[in-house]
Design a protein that fits this description.
Length: about 210
Amino acid sequence: MFPWLFKFAAKSGKIKKFNVPVYDYLSQLTDNQSLIDIISQHFFQKTPASFALSYFSLYLDYEYPVKGTLDLAENLKEYIIKSEGVINTCTEIKKIDSNNKSLLDQNNQYYEYDQLIWAADTNQLYKVIELETINDNKIKQEIEGQKKILRGKRAGDSIYSLYLAVDLDKHYIQKISSGHFFYTPDKTGQSKIFKKLKTVSQATKKKFCLDE
């Protein structure tokens, strides 16, 4: 551990100069737009260059379930059921009474909880919290403040799944792919596509409008 700490301390200063968005950093090195696109288009906007430029080697150490990431959810489901837990699908929470630690769904079904873990849309969480049941004014103000921050924003999903049926031998695919890989047959980049997108405010309404 100690040798690693010394190596990290020596490199931490160098990392600071990469603490800028990857697109901006690459633009300082080259004016080749296609090259910038191919490297940066795999990441969220404003991703630090320190992360993006190291990612192409870091991801090689990732480990994936043999049956795919869905297997994680399936195993979690089995564990909950074996532990005598109950999974309610097609259920939308309409009210949260944090004072009494209770929930109400769209069918007026009542639930009690000891600890609430919310892994759904954050906007929806703050919409369904009943402020009237909260006695602490400071907590109320914090919730209202968070509502304002989230107003107009939408949840994001970084995964787009595309399934193709192709007339190719599986060994061909195995040679060019792995559990996690980058496949870029077109070296042009995506800047031309991005320039056609209209304002981000329209994107928050889940509408991606292209100029004709």
